[in-house]
């Protein structure tokens, strides 16, 4: 706000009425040190107006300095003027008043500084807008710091739901577009309140903007609401909620008229071993895993790893490494400081955990990555080529430690609702594969379940690829995608969870830490907690 006193016409100390002189002696209004911005006004008009001002007894500065009290501009927004001010070296002028040319011309006519009215000031609102506009948002998520403190959850939830729906419908491009838009909003330091704040932000396509506008104006997006209500979306959610069921399988089932677990149980569809286990533990696996549970499992797995290969190291990866308090699964990366010692480790770890009764299901894939064979830039080499184990872990109450009894009761109730009543169908073929513990549990009369099932992923990497695996498996998925897009588009490099290849130099760039990989990529290091894009 402009202080009222600024309105006062202050007599010049000399008492001069000078109208024709540019000397400081003839300044009649010393509380007004004006600066006219040339931007959009043009140099000759600025010169003319400056001379006019001086003639009328105003102090008009040729150069901008910190002594300037009022900046006069023509056809500029407050944002534009602030941007210009910020570009002036060493200018710390948060209190300078930004006035429109109309105040200046009226003052010239009056021969004195006229009262500064609301319409004379470059609008305050535009100043707020400017702060968001000026908050620089680089286009790639891997150039931004995205913490878990999302200021725009209402908007990003809407966009994420549409992204999920697109992904479930095998429309990957549309899914990525919504994910990118959501990620940009997640990186903003303040909640978005008006569409004008979004001007100039990257990654916001027409469709995403329509959704955002709808939410800002109506409190909800009609497209999101109708998607949530649609039978197809509901069915896709329920069916892909089964571990081992992807969008293609779910789509096939829906076309066969299967929309829920009961219909699936009643159908003649045979399920593979993963899907049977998924159905068996449906409720547990659709309940978020807590950090405490992740840590409890970490201790068990690490003990098994170290017992079969002393000196081996294990790291919590995925969302928990980014600081999330819950997750859909728990991911661990295992390595050994001596290259090659990790070979054959996974089957031993799995046997050990199995013997201890911790695995309700497991499927191990061999390491199929070979630098010489896979070569750089093969998209298929981006993921999944490590020795890897997808498992369903049996976490008992004792191992979970201080779990509240009420939690367990609730899960137990939920469990008896769905999966128990349908697990009898569709299994059979491979029932022998299943763990004794499960069979035993099943034969018991429905009582309070003293354990829960948790999805656990184990990955083993040779130490030479460890930094790449760590970076690749920490996520978020969009952050990873953006890292690879950056590498390809901006650096002519190809990044995977195994290696970084520089196409210009035709060579692999080695790294022993995440920091080194960011540096190879010409990116500022972003710590895991700020990769929540
Ligand atoms: P997750 O799917 O486990 O996601 O993948 P998350 O971030 O931990 O979140 P939750 O579990 O849903 O809470 C973890 C990371 O592993 C990589 C993904 O890119 C992601 O960054 N990943 C996952 C792979 O590289 N390959 C895969 O097959 C799966
Ligand atoms: Mn995870």
Automatic annotation (TrEMBL):
Mg(2+) binds at residues 329, 331, 457. Residues 400-416 have a biased composition (Basic and acidic residues). GO terms for cellular component: nucleus. It catalyses: DNA(n) + a 2'-deoxyribonucleoside 5'-triphosphate = DNA(n+1) + diphosphate. One of its GO terms (molecular function) is DNA-directed DNA polymerase activity. Residues 1-22, 400-446 are annotated as: Disordered. It holds the Pfam family DNA_pol_B_thumb. This is DNA-directed DNA/RNA polymerase mu. It comes from Labrus bergylta (ballan wrasse).
